[in-house]
Structures are given as structure tokens and as C-alpha cells.
Design brief:
- It is a single chain.
- The chain has 409 residues and is of the alpha/beta class.
- Helices cover 28% and strands 12% of the residues.
- The chain contains 12 helices and 12 strands.
- A 7-stranded mixed sheet has the order 5-6-4-1-7-8-9, sandwiched between helices. The protein has a 3-stranded antiparallel sheet with strand order 10-12-11, with no helix packed on it.
- A hairpin with a 2-residue loop joins strand 2 and strand 3.
- Helix 4 packs across helix 5.
- The longest helix has 23 residues.
- The protein is globular.
- The chain starts with a helix and ends in a 6-residue tail after the last helix.
């Protein structure tokens, strides 16, 4: 029988939690109409009834919050039966280094089993989902192709489709939602940092991207995942959005998040992007640039961020972008290519600039850029205008395709 006291308690809890969320969100996120931007997760009343009587699995990390509490803790307090938590790259608590394998464990606070999807398993197995009736995906993304949470989304969608589980997506704003730019990823360059034929910056929220995955048939074997997107209220792609929780150890400032689509390309070069400092993706440099730039920084081993960074314990000279006006990117609606062109020109050992055999900390520039042309274009000193021309008609075609899946203006 239905317990009236329990029903009353849950109702009051929702009201109090929602009121707290409104106050918290109002402090940070507003649009030009002064309406509060409310994430999908914060709209508890829109999805709590869907969870009633269900065994719930959640794919979450440290960005998965309702108000100031984790969404796991918040929903547990409302009586939701969360039986399993899945964690992506960086782990459930977000404290694992980039690329580091994460093991399964039991959450010490709640006793809920945590299954890592960035280790032995890339997607939930039938066994993992045997005691799960419905899944929730609630992770903050940053809108870049090489940021792996969209890959995790696809893996979870595949499992949910195969094992007949509905997936609820608690949508969150894309801090780079205004930006749709870069070459379309060549199929032969698909990898763990790029699984889809999209540009470097895709300009979609996680909810919109899930619709594109389904609509374009990107799941294997023509699978279709049953998804339900809990939409963001009072959001548009052009608005600025300061993240209340940073999404990974090396994206630890709003500046780094906004520069990331441009500066992450340097992972395919001999230049440090600031890994091994507390200002990653906002500085660029290498020891060989001494005498050409006054600014310097020194990468060191930092547990949970970068244990063995490129150029560890060496002074790196180059660009300090911490005060770069990111409104320039917003106005141009383009990633910055001038830094790559400038630093390649300045680097004295040209044959070493893209040579990833020098260090395990260097990535593949072709996979990062998404095209085999980009590396040679930089080497040959091709103009930015010509480089951008080579991205067509793919980029324009993607922008047209993207419109089919937009939830927000």
C-alpha cells in the first residue's frame, strides 16, 4: 500500500531541493532575458516520476550535480533506487588522470557498485544491466570531438539499445555551444579520441548529440536507443555558460574550457599544453623555444592531473593565453589556428615538431585534427584561408545536418 507519510516527505523534499537549485543556479547562469538557466538534472519533477518503482543505473561523474549535491546523493535522498553507477574517463569522482584506466569499485559513501567504462569495459555488458530497469546519463561535456564523453554516450546508447533499456539524458549546456568548426574526421582516422564524422567543435549538447547518433545510424547493427532528453530551460547555443563544476582534472578553469578546442591540437606536437601545471590548456611552450619567448613555465609530476608530463622538470618557453580574450573566438566562431602556425614557424627543429616517436606523451596530430592534410599544411606554410577552404564542403554540410537535431536555438 502507498504510505502517505512517505509520499508527503518526498513531495516536501522535491520542493526544498528545487528551491535550493534555483538559488544556486541563479547565482551563476542567466540569459539576456534574465531568466534562470536550469539544467535537465535540476528539473527533478520532470523525470522523478519516470524512476518510480524502477531499478536505476546512472552514468555520472563529479559534474553530475543537482544544486550543490551529486545527483546520486540527491536522488537517493528522494527515495530513488539506484542500484549501479557507471563512471567514464577520469572516474566517478573525476580524480583520475587523462587516459588512465579506472577500475571497478564500491562507492564508500553509498555502498553502490561502480562500474568503470574507461578500463576493461567500454560499455555496459548484459550482466551489468541485468538488474537495471532504466539508465540515466548525466555528464557535463565541452563540445569538442576529442573529449571522450560523447564516445561514452554512444557506448551506453549501444548497450541500452541492445538490452532494451530506456536511457534518460539529463541535458546540460555546452560551454562552447556557439562553436561549429574544424575539418570533418576522416573515417580511416577513427580512434578513441574521435568516433564520428564531425568537426573538431560540434556545437551540440549531449541531448542533441544523442539524437544525432540515433538519427544518423551511428550505432552498430542499425541499433536505435530509446532516449528521453530532459531539456535545459532558458538556454540557447550563443549564451555564455560558466560551469559550476569543472569536467576533468586538466580542464580546471573556464579559460581552459573555452581554449580547449584550439589548444588541444597541440597534444599532437612537441609543445607542452601545460599538463604538469595547474594551468593546463592555457599555456603553450617547449624548451627549444628559449630565447624566442620570454614567458616560461615548468611541467612537473602532479598526481591525478599528469604524473609524467611532456618536458617534465624542464623550463618551457612560449605563449601565455590565460588572459586571452575568448570573446575573439566567440565573435569569429572559429578555432584559433594562428597559434599553431606561429609556434611551428618559431620552432627551430621543424622535423621534430609533429614527431610522436619522441615521447609517449605526444598524440597523433592526424587523429586530433581529423585529417591527414593539416600536418602538411602547417609544414608547408599554407595560409589559414586555404586551410579552411580544405575543410569544405564537409563543414558546411555538417552545419546543415546539425540543424535537424537541435533542441535549442
Amino acid at each position: 500500500m502507498k504510505n502517505p507519510l512517505l509520499t508527503l516527505f518526498i513531495s516536501i523534499s522535491i520542493i526544498m531541493l528545487f528551491a535550493c537549485n534555483q538559488k544556486h543556479v541563479a547565482n551563476k547562469h542567466t540569459v539576456s532575458t534574465n531568466k534562470i538557466t536550469i539544467t535537465g538534472a535540476d528539473q527533478i519533477s520532470a523525470y522523478l516520476p519516470l524512476l518510480k518503482g524502477k531499478r536505476v543505473g546512472m552514468l555520472v561523474n563529479q559534474t553530475s550535480i543537482i544544486g550543490k549535491k551529486t545527483s546520486v546523493d540527491s536522488l537517493l535522498s528522494l527515495g530513488v533506487n539506484i542500484v549501479k553507477v557507471f563512471g567514464p574517463e577520469h572516474g566517478f569522482r573525476g580524480n583520475a588522470s587523462a587516459g588512465a584506466k579506472v577500475n571497478n569499485e564500491v562507492d564508500q559513501k553509498t555502498g553502490i557498485p561502480i562500474i568503470s567504462l574507461y578500463g576493461k569495459f567500454k560499455r555496459p555488458t548484459q550482466e551489468h544491466l541485468a538488474d537495471v530497469d532504466i539508465m540515466i546519463f548525466d555528464i557535463q561535456d565541452v563540445g569538442a570531438r576529442f573529449y571522450t564523453y560523447i564516445n561514452t554516450l554512444a557506448h551506453v546508447m549501444e548497450s541500452c539499445a541492445e538490452f532494451n533499456k530506456e536511457l534518460i539524458i539529463l541535458d546540460r549546456p555546452n560551454p562552447n555551444g556557439y562553436l561549429v568548426d574544424g575539418p570533418i574526421l576522416q573515417k580511416e582516422l577513427y580512434s578513441g579520441i574521435g568516433m564520428f564524422p564531425i568537426p573538431i567543435a560540434h556545437g551540440l549538447t549531449i541531448g542533441e548529440f544523442a539524437q544525432m547518433i540515433n538519427g544518423e545510424g551511428w550505432l552498430p547493427n542499425n541499433l536505435q536507443c530509446k532516449i528521453r532528453v530532459i531539456k535545459i530551460a532558458n538556454y540557447n547555443h550563443d549564451m555564455s555558460y560558466d560551469l559550476p563544476v569543472f569536467p576533468s582534472p586538466n580542464l580546471n578553469s573556464q579559460q581552459s574550457i573555452l581554449l580547449y578546442p584550439s589548444t588541444c591540437l597541440f597534444e599532437g606536437t612537441i609543445l607542452s599544453q601545460g599538463r604538469g601545471t595547474y594551468i593546463p590548456f592555457t599555456v603553450l611552450g617547449a624548451p627549444a623555444l628559449k630565447g624566442k619567448y620570454d614567458f616560461s613555465f615548468k611541467p612537473v609530476s602532479i598526481q591525478g592531473m599528469s604524473e609524467t608530463p611532456l618536458h617534465q622538470n624542464e623550463d618551457c618557453f612560449g605563449l601565455d593565453l590565460r588572459k586571452y580574450d575568448t570573446n575573439i573566438l566567440r565573435k569569429s566562431r572559429q578555432i584559433n589556428l594562428s597559434w599553431m602556425m606561429e609556434l611551428y614557424k618559431a620552432y627551430p627543429l621543424k622535423d621534430k615538431f609533429f614527431d610522436k616517436t619522441q615521447s609517449k606523451q605526444m598524440g597523433d596530430i592526424n587523429k586530433l585534427a581529423g585529417t591527414e592534410k593539416f600536418k602538411q599544411q602547417i609544414i608547408d606554410g599554407i595560409s589559414e584561408v586555404e586551410i579552411r577552404k580544405s575543410w569544405e564542403p564537409g563543414l558546411t554540410n555538417f552545419k546543415t545536418l546539425r540543424k535537424k537535431y537541435l533542441i535549442y536555438p
